[in-house]
Amino acid sequence: MAPDQQLDVGEPLVRVEDLTIRFPGGRAGFWGQTELEVHAVDGISFEIAPGETLGLVGESGSGKTTTGRAVLRRAPIRSGRIHFGGRDITDLAGKAKRALSRHMQLIFQDPYASLNPRMRILDLVAEPLIVHGLAENREEAVEEVKELLRRVGLPPNAFERFPHAFSGGQRQRVVIARALALKPQFIVADEPVSALDVSIRAQVVNLLQDLQGEFGLTYLFIAHDLSVVQHVSDRIAIMYAGKLIEIGPANRIYRRPKHPYTEALLSAVPVPDPAVQRRRKRIVYKDEPPNPIFPPKGCRFAKRCPLVSLQCKNVEPPLEAKSPGHFAACWHKH
Amino acid sequence: MTGKLLEIDGLEVHFTTRRGVVRAVRGVSLSIGKGEALGLVGESGSGKSVTAQAAMGLVHAPGEIVGGDIRWKGKSLLGPRGQALSRKIRGRKVSIVFQDAMTSLNPLFTCGQQIAEVLRHHMGMNRKQARARALELLELVDISAPQQRLDQFPFEMSGGMRQRVMIAMALTCEPELLIADEPTTALDVNIQAQILELLQDLQQRLGLSIIMITHDLGVVAGICDRVAVMYGGRIVEQARVDEIFARPGHPYTMGLLRSTPRIDGGDERMTSIAGSPPDLLVPQSGCAFAERCPVAQNECATDIRLKEISEHRQVACHFPFEGPWSRNAREAGGRDGA
């Protein structure tokens, strides 16, 4: 599937417009009269086509997890719109909002923390079915749960056991089975393999890809490990300090990055090959990311950027097309 | 033995738990020379960290060193006779940097105080000397605004800076050997690269030997001279870094290399190793990797020791691979991975 074609074809499954998220950031000033805000996500827009995997990359604090949660309506949205399947879901509340989770699910990083140790696998996987009224009780859900566990490659007797009996990789399979129970169209996977060992990581990534083919799933794949993201994604979006700075087809981002930050990021990823690794040169950028409470007025990467000019410091570069389907926010790279 | 700083010989470490005895390290032997960088690679539970902790004398109850020897420049550090030497060496000539700097630093003291404490205790410096030396050390690890960092608490710093403070602290007594236990795992890619460059730079400037414990083959490729791969409490392969990446001998090493995605690779399907790591509670007979191994045969049920297959190259496998390999398991032979 060519991702750039996908974008033109019909309606995207997910469309995010000008999403802004702020969190309270304490108080300042005389008697604390000024309320400070953390600019977690600042005016980002992107689309995800049905059946596509969009990789979302950024360092810690860049707002990638917050964005993923906002798409699922699990973060407070300051402004902007979120559309899902052609419907504006930004203002849904109550029952309508709860019904959303039948179509969109979340997988977390830590399979140890996301499974209740006191619940059997059967109860864990059956819970969403019961909550959404697809099964009266867990006895009714047994067959369904067994089928789900088989799909994710767990032994048939797994359903009667507790999470402690499983390794990290197997637990992540349980988490995936639970996310699939409601047959969602869209899954946000937040660092789903970061906590797993190398050999197990490949198993889970392959499982996610198989399930995508089987159920026609659409993924938002959030990770900081660029090699895994590069591998699973059709397109990649890169965030820096709450801004979307580059988005485009995965192979083009890797071969021709159009933002100095992306370029530096790619050069820092170690390659498991001594000959290549010794030849590679890392693009150095020093300093720290900007303070999210007082973001700079120009480009947020300006302070650390090798190409910086006066324009960068004063005017924020817009996200513009550098080649078809490939967008970046930089004044200087073309 | 000449020229070897640290030698670990047939080390066995057991942990007694309610469910039985966990045999975490099962006869590990390795050595490191002056100025060398050794990579110790393995998954969680392979025994790599426990091996390092044993070398630092940090194995405490319920853990116990039940066999083998650890020698510093030929002299044993174990047992009652080794104790005096052990106190002199460990923390001074050998120091360790842990993965999580936030939990390793005391949150109630400033970084300056924590570095100075080591200097005053180990080097007998007074407060003023210690502070001056602490500043030098922070400069050595290339931290930004070192003067201010002295009076900052760990929570005021970013993860990368904290890791630099940890390294500075490890360098206080001018060690000859630095053990880095997953020093970059919790860090962002860019910070990881910075820390690795720092370690490499220190190695060259101070003639430091480094044992780098990691699960990331990319990290090893960048900075190590020699690599030991651990699985199920044993070393399954040991060779020079170029050799191991160009011609992995053990099927597990091959599996690890194949399942590590490369950023410069294509988007073919990832190759995984079937199954999961062994349960260390179960006494092992034969090759620990046999049940996951694609080329396992009947002989694999019999015990296998690390044996030399060529110079500087040891593999613990009845049927080691030879010659070039391909990332793609389905196309046998084919492209050279190197």
Please describe what this structure looks like.
The complex is a heterodimer of chains A (334) and B (338). Chain A is of the alpha/beta class. Helices cover 33% and strands 23% of the residues of chain A. Chain A contains twelve helices and twelve strands. In chain A, the strands form two sheets. Chain A has an eight-stranded mixed β-sheet, sandwiched between helices. Chain A has a four-stranded antiparallel β-sheet with strand order 2-1-4-5. In chain A, helix 4 (121-131) runs parallel beside helix 6 (168-180) and helix 5 crosses helix 6 (168-180). Mean pLDDT of chain A is 90; it is low at 1-8. With 338 residues, chain B is an alpha/beta fold. Chain B is built from eleven helices and twelve strands. Chain B has helices spanning 48-56, 79-89, 101-104, 111-123, 127-140, 146-149, 159-170, 189-206, 217-223, 241-246, 251-259, and strands at 4-17, 20-33, 37-41, 63-72, 75-76, 94-97, 177-181, 209-214, 226-231, 234-240, 307-310, 313-315. In chain B, strand 4 and strand 5 (75-76) form a beta hairpin. In chain B, helix 5 crosses helix 7 (159-170) and helix 7 runs parallel beside helix 8 (189-206).
